Amino acid sequence: MSEDRRVLGRRTPRNEDPRLLTGRALFVDDVQRPGMVHVAFVRSPHAHARLGAIDASAALQMPGVLGVYTADDLGDYWQPGPLLVPPPPVSGMEFHERTQVPLARDKVRHVGEPVALVVAESRYLAEDAVEQIFVDYEPLPAVVDLVAALEPDAARVHDDLDSNLAAFVPQSRGDYAAARAEAHLVLARTFDYDRGASAAIENRGVVAEWDPREDRLTIWDTTQAPIPVRNGLAAMLGLSEHQVHLIAPFIGGGFGPKIMMFYPEEVLIPWLALQLGVPVKWIEDRSENFYATTQERGQIHEAEIAVDTEGRILGVRDRFLHDTGAYDPYGLTVPLNSQCTLLGPYRIPAYDSEMRAVFTNKTIVTPYRGAGRQHGVFVIERLLDLVARELDLDPFEVRRRNFLQPEDFPVDQTIIYQDFQPLVYDSGNYEPLLDQARQRIGWDQFLESEQPNARAEGRLLGIGVVAYVEGTGIGPFEGARVQIQTSGRVTVVTGVGTQGQGHYTVLAQIAAEQLAVPVTSVDVITGDTDQFHWGTGTFASRGAVVAGNAVHAAAVEVRAKTLAIAARLLEVTEDELELVDSEVRVVSDPTRSMALGTLAAEANPMRGAVTPGTEPGLEATRYFGPHRGATASGAHAMVLEVDPETYDVTIHRYVVVHDCGRILNPLIVDGQVHGGVAQGIGNCFYEELVYDENGQLMNASLMDFLLPTSLDVPRVEVGHEETVSPLNELGTKGAGEAGAIPTGALFAQALENALDLPGLEILQIPLNPSKLWHLVQRARAAHTSAG
Amino acid sequence: MKIQGERFLPFPRQAVWDALMDPEVLSRTLPGCQKLERRDETTFEGQLQVAIGPVRGAFRGTLAMSELAPPEGYSMRLDGQGPSGFLKGEGGVELVETEDGGASGTTLRYDLDAQVGGRIAGVGQRLLDSSAKVIAGQGLDGLERQLAARHPTGDSTETPSRSDDALPEAPAAPSQAAFAAAVAQGVARDLIPPHVRLRLAIAVAFALGLALGLWLGGGA
Fold first, then answer.
1. Inter-chain contact B202–A703, Cβ cutoff 8 Å?
2. C-alpha distance from B115 to closest chain A C-alpha (Å)
3. What CA–CA distance (Å, rounded) separates A626 from B41?
4. For the sheet containing A49-55, what is the strand order?
5. Residue B209 scores a pLDDT above 80
6. How far B138 CA sits from the closest chain A CA (Å)?
7. Taking chain A, what is the end-to-end CA distance rounded to the nearest angstrom?
8. What's the CATH number where B42 sits?
C-alpha cells in the first residue's frame, strides 16, 4: 500500500456526526414501546436515618398508578450489588465490601438513596404518586467530614463495621526514612481535592421489555459496559445470557459514572418488566442525577517530599484519605490511581504511601474522567513547585532534573496499579513535551514583556506548566469481528460501547487501512450484545488501544483471506496482488481485478464446497488483551489573569502537548483533549459539590453547580509527540482522560505566579473567587505579622 | 438557618394571641394552605401544596407548641415532610404590647432555627434566607388582614361573633411574578458574588418553591 493511501494518523471527519447532527441517533429516552409504563423513585431526603414505616396507601389509590414497591416487595431479588472490582493483591491491605442495595432497607445512607418506586401509566402520574408516599425517618448523625469520620466516636455509616474505614492500602518502594535522613530539604503539606459531578448532557436511563413469545428480555441502557451488565442482569434474573439483549445506543457522555454497573435503577427496571409483562421506562432527571449518579474526587493528602541540594527527589511520603461515599462497589480503582499516578514522570527512589478509603453519608464515589489520577498529579506537581520555590528553580528545571529518561524504559515502579499488574511504564520521552509546551505558550516572551507590562497596568497575569503521566489501555480484553459484505461495505462489530468518543470513526479507520476501502464504507456496530458476545466496556482510556487492536488483528486476518481467495480466482500468487480502492488487482496488470464485494460473494458459495480447512465468508474475529496498560504522558501550560478586585479568573491561553503513542486520528485526540480540559477547568474553579454538616447537598442544580461555559474555556492548542507503545501492534496509548488530569495542579501554579505573594500556597481544588480571596488575605496577614 | 424578624400589628395582644391559636384564621393567612387542623391543645397538623419548578408536592407538617404563656408567647417545633424534602424548625413567638407612633398594638417577634433537607435544600440553598423573609412577610400580611376583618376598628378587645363568610379568603398562592419580584429584591440586596452566573429569573422560580416550603416556619 502506498503511503498516500494511509488513513491512520489522518484528521478523518467523524462517521457518526451526520446522524448525531441531524437528530437521527437513537438515545435511550427515544425508545417508545406500546403499552410502556413509567417509574419514578421515592428518594431519601436524609443523609443518614433509620427507615420506619412507608405509607403508600394514598398513592396506590391514585388513578393510573399500577404499583408501589419497597425493599420488602422485592423478595429474593433484593440483594446488595456485586463488587465490580475486587481489592488489589497488596500485602497488608484491608477492604470492607459494602455495596449499594436496590431499595433501602432499615437505613438510608445518603440523600437520594432510593427507598421506594412507583409504576404508573405516565411519568407525570408516577411523580404525582411519589408525592403521596409518606416515609418515617429517624434521623441519625451524618458522617460528612473525612477526618472526623475516622474518629472513634463517629457515627457509623455501616453499623456492622467497627469504624468507617472502607479500605487501607499501603504501598511502598525504597527506604523513605533513609531518603529523608539524607535529604537537603524536606517539605510537608496537606492537600485537599474535593468532589465534583460529571454532569453528562444525557442523564442515565433504562427501558426494559419482556417478550413472552420470544422468551427474551430487551434492555436499552445508558451504560458504558453493555456486555457485563447483560451478563450480570441475566444471572440476577435467572435467565440465560442469550435471553437478554442489552442495547447501549448513542449515549450523551459517559465520563465514568456510566461504567458503574448495577445501579439500583438498572437492576430494578428489568425486574419490573418481567414482573409486569409490559415495557418499563425510567429516565433520570437532572435533580436525581445530583444524588443518584456516582461522583468523584474527595481526597485529603498529607504528603512530604525529600530532595537533595539540586532539587532531585530522594523520596515521597503520602498519607491520604479517600471519600468513597456510602458504599464501595467499584472497589479501590480511584484511590489506587491516585496512589500510582503520584509517581508521575519522575524518578522517585523511595515512596511510602498509605491510602485509607472512608465511608461517608454521601453519594457513592466511582471513577469520573481522571479517576483519581488528578489527585496524585496535584500532590506531586505542587510538591515540586514548592521545592522549586525553596531552591529558586524554574518549573521546567525542577521537572527536567527529575524526569525519567528515554533509556530508563520500561520503568518498573514495582507498586500495583488498578489493573492489578505491577505499574510498569512501557515507553515515554518527557523533555520534548515540556520544550514544546514552553514554545507554544510563549513562556520566555511572557516573562520578559507580557507579564511585567500587564503588571505595570495593574493587571495580574500568571503562567504555569506541569507534566503528568496517565495509565491507559488496560485489559483484560476486547474483541472485534470484521466482515466484508457482498456490497463491498465493511462491518466492524465490537463489544465496547460508545459515549461520543468517535468509535465509529477510529475503529473504521483501522479496518479501512487494512482493507483499502473509504472510511465511510465501514459500518461500526457497538453497544449491542446481540451483535457481539464478549467484552468489558469503555473505561480507563482503553477503547482505541484494546478494541482498536482487536479490530486491527481481525482486519489483518480478513485482508489475508481476501488476498488468498483473490489469488485463487485470479490464478496468481498472493504477492502479485494489491488491495487498492475497494478491489484486489494484479500489480503488473491492474485491469485484472476483483471488487471486494464480489470476493465476499465468492467466499460464501451457494453450491460447490468451501475448501476444507477454510471458513466461509470474508470475516474474522479477534481478541486483544494487553498484558498491562500503556502509559501516556503530557505537559499542560496556561496563561491566566486574576481580577484584583473580584478574584475572578480568566484563562487566556491553554496549551496541551500530548503523547498517546501512535495517533490514529489527530482530530479525535484533539477533541478528547479539548473536552478533558473543559472538565478540568470546571473542576478547578466552577464545579464543586457543597455538602453541609448534615450531608445535605446544597447546590444540586445547574444554577448553583456551575459548569464552565464556552466563555470560560479558552481555545485549547494541542501539540503532539509520538512515543509508540511496544505493547500493541498499533503502538497506541489512550487519550480519553489526559485533558482533565493535570488541570488543577496547573491552575494552582499559574495562580501563584499571577498573585506573586510570599506565603501564598494553593493547596486545594476546587477554588472559586471567594476562596481565592480568603487565601490571599490569609497570606497577606501571615506575611505582615511575620514581617 | 435562622428565620427571625418582627412585625408591629395595630391590635391588642390578646386578639393577636387568639388569632394565632385559631386554625381557621391561620389557614386563611397562609398562602397555599390546604388544611390546618388542631390535633390537640398545642399541636396543629397541616398540609401545604407546593408546586413550583422542581420543588413541588404536598408538604405535611406538624406545629407543636409548648411553654404556652398566653398572651405573651410560646415555643414551637415544626416538622414538615414532602417529596421534595423535609424541614424542621425550633424556636419561639413572642408578643409584646407596644406603642407605635401613638397607636397601641402588639409586636410579634419570631425566631426559628430551621433545617431543610433533600431536594428543597439542593436547589435553592443560597436563596433560602431571602425567600424565608419574603414568605414570613406575606404570612404576616395575611395575619394582619385577618385581624382587621375581625376587629374593624382595630381597638376592640372582644372577638366578634364568628362569621366565616365575613372573613377574607386566604390569598391564593401569590403569582410567580409577584413572588419573583419580591425575592429578586431580597436577592439583589444580599448579593450574588460576581462570578455566579446565575440567571435570576430562573433562580427566583426555584426560590418560590423553597420559600413556600419554609413558609410554615415563617408564617407561624
1. yes
2. 9
3. 75
4. A107-108, A49-55, A134-139
5. no
6. 25
7. 72
8. 3.30.530.20
Angstrom distances, CA of residue B23 to CA of A245, B17, B168: 58, 12, 14
Q: What are phi and psi of A94, to 5 degrees?
A: -130, 135
- Which of A108, A698, A709 is best to mutate for the B interface (most B CBs within 10 A)? A698
Closest CA relative to residue A500, chosen from A536, A543, A534: A543
Nearest-neighbour CA in chain B from A694: distance (Å): 9
Name every chain B residue with its beta carbon within 8 A of the beta carbon of A290.
Answer: 122
- Residue numbers in B near A134 (CB within 8 A): 60, 81
Chain A residues whose CB is inside 8 A of the B199 CB are 703
Residue of A nearest to B49 (CA): A131
Inter-chain contact B83–A133, Cβ cutoff 8 Å?
yes
CA distance A701 to chain B (A): 5
Q: In the predicted model, is pLDDT for residue B174 greater than 70?
A: no
- For A525, phi and psi rounded to 5 degrees? -120, 120
Please write the tens of the pLDDT for every residue from A157-193. 999 999 999 999 999 999 999 999 999 999 999 999 9
Q: Report the residue from A46, A700, A768 with minimal CB separation from B123.
A: A700
Instruction: Give pLDDT < 70 ranges for chain A.
Output: 1-4, 608-611, 786-787
Cα–Cα distance for residue pair A649/A770, rounded to 1 Å = 11
The shortest C-alpha distance from A47 to chain B (Å) reads: 8
The count of other CB atoms within 10 Å of the CB of residue A584 is: 25
Cell numbers of A612, please?
476444507
Q: Examine the predicted complex and report whether its ipTM is higher than 0.90.
A: no
SS3 call for A509: helix
One-letter amino acid for residue A539 of the chain? F
Question: φ and ψ at A540, to 5 degrees?
Answer: 55, 35
Contact A741, A676 (CB under 8 A): yes
Q: Which secondary structure element, helix H or strand E, spans residue A549, and what is its range? A: helix A548-570
Locus of grid cell 525529600? A306
pLDDT bracket for residue B195 (50, 70, 90): very low
How do A299-307 and A185-193 pair as beta strands?
A: antiparallel
pLDDT at B217 (0 to 100): 39
Residues of A with CB under 8 A from a CB of B: 42-47, 111, 130-135, 137, 285, 287, 290-291, 646, 648, 690, 692, 694, 696-701, 703-704, 706, 709, 768-770
Q: Which structural domains are found in chain A, ordered by start?
A: 3-24+475-624 (3.30.365.10), 200-292 (3.30.365.10), 299-401+413-474+627-786 (3.30.365.10)
Which residue range(s) make up the domain with B144? 2-219
Task: Name the band, by pLDDT with cuts 50, 70 and 90, for residue B188.
Answer: low
User: Residues near B127 by Cβ (< 8 Å), separated by ≥ 6?
Assistant: B183, B187, B203, B204, B206, B207, B210, B211
How many domains does chain B divide into? Answer: 1
Question: Could you give the count of Cα atoms lying within 13 Å of A292 in the half-sphere of its Cβ?
Answer: 31
Distance separating alpha carbons of residues A35 and A101, to the nearest angstrom: 29
Chain A residues with CB inside 8 Å of B196's CB? 706
pLDDT in tens, A274-318: 999 999 999 999 999 999 999 998 999 999 999 999 999 999 999
Note the pLDDT tens digit of each residue in A314-367: 999 999 999 999 999 999 999 999 999 999 999 999 999 999 999 999 999 999
Residues of chain B contacting A, Cβ within 8 Å: 54, 56-58, 60, 81-86, 115-126, 193-199, 202-203, 206
- Is A219:A231 a contact under the CB 8 Å cutoff? no
* pLDDT of A2: 45
Q: B218 pLDDT exceeds 50? A: no
Residue A102's closest CA among A216, A233, A298?
Answer: A233
Give the bridge partners for B63, in sequence order.
Answer: B44, B78
